[in-house]
Write a structure and sequence with these properties.
8-stranded parallel beta sheet; two-stranded antiparallel ribbon; alpha/beta
Length: 386
């Protein structure tokens, strides 16, 4: 029942299952897999697609001949496994050149190099079939506000996005951009720290219709925010172009745990939101296996991400079909229609009638909502006893 199918559109990045388990305090514990090996691993576990940063696939110092051979081999692996490339992105954070950011760097040469690198990476992504291009500004921030003007940083970010939108339009690419927010790490503070920040920023661009968001569970949880609410805002705005799924203890560093492994109820409401609103985009697991894992356990990790999503999707359907739960929701949302003439679109007549309407404030204050019962039923459903 919980075997992934192509229509689920489950994807992983080369950097996820290919992560060798290195962390700031320890060296790699797994040998490095080639992109071709990673594609075959993902094919084995039943993934739909594979995503990449430019330098996950082609090393930053590769020659043109090396680049062409790597891409040929990668295309062959895709053909052999049936995997697709729905999304690509640029690594603008690892190389020392980006130590003070890429698009927001105080050094104009760095900003220009970042544009050049991104245009080349966009070409590569489009060549391999990507329709979404993600921007995560991992170094676009600061440790001290003495060193960088935040308004200037916003202006530089806007200039870069406008430039790259024009590049895509000029080339005739069928490509949309998705901006990924994160509050901190690896910089002390990163600009446009939340999905809400990104949604506001997008409206200031020259081509806002080309640009949406790529929210990530861990990044919003790092800020102590409700991820489901962030995704809901993006959905309501028509800006959920891509989504990164993982898990994260609130307030910790970027843990990138297996989806649903920490905050199960939060994961459930996220899956329910996506299912209830007909989201049919890619579901990308931007997560890493534990450092203790060998590659057999990495495969278990990848299967677990997809299996948990499918289980929670089934639970969302059960929630919708549960008579007692739906009766409580109907009670909570009951409406006798008395106030319908006053509500909806404003008119002077409606406002006058509403101002004249008598309300029993004490009665309103006495009315309770059975949220405790509803939440307990949700817990019991997730625990498998309903």
């Amino acid at each position: 029942m919980y075997t992934p199918q192509p229509e689920n559109k489950f994807t992983f990045g080369l950097w996820t299952v290919g992560n060798p388990g290195r962390d700031p305090f320890g060296e790699a514990v797994r040998h490095t897999l080639s992109p071709v090996e990673i594609v075959h691993l993902l094919g084995e576990v039943g993934a739909y697609g594979v995503n990449f940063h430019d330098n996950d696939l082609v090393p930053i110092d590769a020659t043109a001949a090396q680049r062409d051979q790597i891409v040929r081999d990668f295309k062959q692996a895709l053909a052999d496994t049936g995997l697709v490339v729905p999304m690509a992105t640029t690594n603008l954070f690892s190389d020392p050149a980006f130590r003070d950011g890429a698009f927001t760097s105080n050094d104009r040469h760095v900003r220009a190099y970042a544009l050049q690198k991104t245009m080349n990476a966009i070409d590569l992504g489009v060549e391999l079939g990507a329709k979404i291009y993600v921007f995560w500004g991992g170094r676009e921030g600061t440790e001290t506000d003495a060193g960088k003007n935040p308004i200037t940083a916003i202006e530089r970010s806007r200039e870069a996005m406008n430039y790259l939108c024009e590049y895509v339009m000029d080339k005739g690419y069928d490509l949309k951009f998705a901006l990924e927010a994160k509050p901190n790490e690896p910089r002390g503070d990163i600009y446009n720290a939340t999905t809400g920040n990104m949604l506001a920023f997008i409206q200031t661009l020259d081509h806002p219709n080309m640009v949406g968001v790529n929210p990530e569970v861990a990044h919003e949880h790092m800020a102590g925010l409700n991820f489901t609410h962030q995704v809901a805002q993006a959905l309501e705005a028509g800006k959920l172009f891509h989504i990164d799924l993982n898990d994260q203890a609130f307030g910790r560093y970027d843990q990138d745990y297996r989806f649903g492994s920490v905050n199960l109820k939060s994961a459930f409401f996220l899956v329910k939101l996506l299912a209830d609103n007909g989201y049919d985009g890619n579901l990308h697991f931007d997560a890493h296996a534990y450092r203790t894992a060998d590659y057999d356990d990495v495969k278990a990790f990848a299967r677990g991400c997809m299996r948990t999503y499918l289980i929670l999707k089934e639970k969302a359907a059960q929630f919708k079909a549960d008579g007692e739960i739906q009766a409580l929701l109907a009670e909570i949302n009951s409406d006798d229609g008395e106030l319908t003439p006053f509500m909806g679109q404003y008119s002077a007549a409606k406002a006058a009638a509403l101002r004249a309407h008598p309300f029993d404030r004490a009665a309103l204050g006495r009315r309770g909502q059975p949220y405790e019962r509803l939440d307990q039923l949700t817990i019991e459903l997730l625990l498998g006893v309903r």
